[in-house]
Amino acid sequence: MKVLVTGGAGYIGTELVTLLVNNPLVKEVVIFDNLSRLNYNLFLGLRLKNHQKIKFIKGELLDSRALKKTLKGVDVVYHLAAKVTTPFANADAHAYEQVNHWGTAELVYAVEASDVKRFIYTSSTGVYGSSNMPAHEDKPPEPQTFYAVSKLRGEEHVRRLIGKIDTYIMRCGNVYGYSKSMRFDAVINKFIFEANFNRLITIQGDGKQSRTFIHIDMVARALDNLLTADLPSDVYNIVDKNLKVIDILDVLKELIPDLEFIFINQHLRLHELNVKVNPLITDTLGIRNNRSLKEELTEFLQKFTF
């Protein structure tokens, strides 16, 4: 089986590729990435086991000719490539539109003219907008940022593939946890870094806003298992837990007693988003979490050099 991973050098991509190359069903993993985040960590350090399965292509999603050439012989496509910059999800609307919307459109056009049998698109729970009640897959999307709007428009193109090939739109919660290619603009990752090195965390708003989260290991495992999972083509949420920001701070304070906090614009109550865990996904893709947040963050802190 030949697998293509767009954005394979990114945060989720790095962990997914590591699992795919160790999958005996996978003969080749093609990474298609423009390295726009200047992240080369996937290519550094000790060699991956079965690294000879990996092929890297530096390319752009809007390059239709390169996409068609890359898709030759590919059986499964993981479309992870996207522009994402937290917390500036309402800045640079043109870039979000070009990459997340039209870049996805170009990839779908190319897939329609190929022999690809399965297409997996990582979207975002951000498409639900703000919701006090736990959102689920049947809730009408109400995106409130340029980023979320662009991901939803990407979904609309991907939906054309449903009924033609196995097609999965996976809406991920806020991803956190250690990776060689981790993003430090993500909420928990940023907090962990600040807590470990500065002993001081800055919080926007009053800290009572809730978000939905999932550990990077769970996301990578879910996507790896989706390679062959018997699951109907549809839209699914990949989430694990809903947490208030102050809940995260309480755990970090327990782990680092001298930790201090600064609240910025504390009078503001930021939007909330809770998402319902889908038991079909947790069972079918084998991502039930048996660890507490404290255990996860303790392990996370131990990954730093000092």
Give the arrangement of secondary structure elements.
Blueprint: E1 2-6, H1 11-20, E2 28-33, E3 54-58, H2 64-70, E4 76-79, H3 93-112, E5 118-124, E6 131-135, H4 146-158, E7 166-172, E8 174-176, H5 187-197, E9 200-204, E10 210-215, H6 216-225, E11 234-238, E12 241-244, H7 245-255, E13 260-264, E14 273-275, H8 279-284, H9 293-301
Parallel strand pairs: 1-2, 1-4, 2-3, 4-5, 5-7, 6-14, 7-11, 8-10, 9-13
Antiparallel strand pairs: 10-12
- The assigned structural class equals alpha/beta
By CATH, the architecture of the largest domain is named 3-Layer(aba) Sandwich
> What percentage of residues falls in helices of 4 or more residues?
25-40%
Quaternary: single chain
Rg over CA atoms, rounded to whole Å, is 19 Å
Overall body shape: globular
The CATH homologous superfamily of the largest domain is named NAD(P)-binding Rossmann-like Domain
Write the H/E string, N to C.
EHEEHEHEEHEEHEEHEEHEEHH
Largest sheet: 7 strands, parallel
Query: Please, how many domains?
Result: 2
- Per the CATH scheme, the topology name of the largest domain is Rossmann fold
Average of the residue pLDDT scores? 93
Q: Enumerate the strands of the largest sheet in spatial order, edge to edge or round the barrel.
A: 3-2-1-4-5-7-11
Which strand-content bin applies to the residues?
15-25%
Q: How many strands?
A: 14
Report the total helices.
9
